[in-house]
Amino acid sequence: MAALKAEMSYREKAEKRGCYCDVWDNKEAPKYLIEQGLPEGFCGKCERCGANGHTRHYPGPAPYTGAWCDDCYRLLGKTWFFRLPMFWLVLIGVLIYGFFKISVQSFN
Fold this sequence. Notes:
With 108 residues, the protein is mainly α. The chain has five helices and three strands; from the N terminus they run αααβββαα. A three-stranded antiparallel β-sheet has the order 1-2-3. It is rod-shaped and about 75 Å long.
C-alpha cells in the first residue's frame, strides 16, 4: 500500500487532497512555488503555523481559499463552527433558557 502511495502522481494526490499540487507534474509551471521557497510536493505555506502545506478551500462554509498544513487543516475542519457568531448566540441563548428554567422550577 505504501508503494502504491509513493507511485501516485501529484495530480492524483492533489485530487485526493483537494489542493493545487498538480502543478508539480508540469516542469515549467512550479517556478513561482520554487521562488516562494516551497519544496517539491507542497503548494503553499500554512497560514497558522508557517509550515509547508497545501492551498485548498476553507473546510467550513466560507467561500475562502487558503494554505494550511495537514494538521492545521484537520484542526480547522473540526473547529470552524466556533468562529461563527451564530454558534455563540445560540449557545448563550440555550444557557440562559436553561438557567431560567431551573430558576423557575426551584421557586415552585
